[in-house]
Amino acid sequence: MDRVRFEELVVEALDDLPKQFAKRIENVELVVEDEPSPSQLRQLGLDPRRETLFGLYQGVPLSQRTTSYGMTLPDKITIFYRPLVRAFHSPDAIRREVTRTVIHEVGHYFGLDDDEIRSAGY
User: Fold this and answer.
1) pLDDT < 70 positions in the chain
2) What does pTM read for this prediction?
């Protein structure tokens, strides 16, 4: 799958979020990058030679924000193109996993941890 179509899938996944969640997302940048950097992987306790990421949330989750939160750079959700197209080969499988990854990272934005997100099926 080419990068342009992949980016379209990421936008579609974000556009398809349920309205009760989508309307609460503010000040978040959604980007597509080719690969996670070795330092990003190491910061998460992953071995850059053997492990990768499909997505990454960077920011302050809504559940941790206080009344003094403000004047900050946008949170960032990154979806990684190459790991996803390496792991999933058909367009349908890539689309499903892009949707799953976007939802997973949005879950982090709302303050859910990996276990909570996985128990919800993402």
Assistant:
1) none
2) 0.91
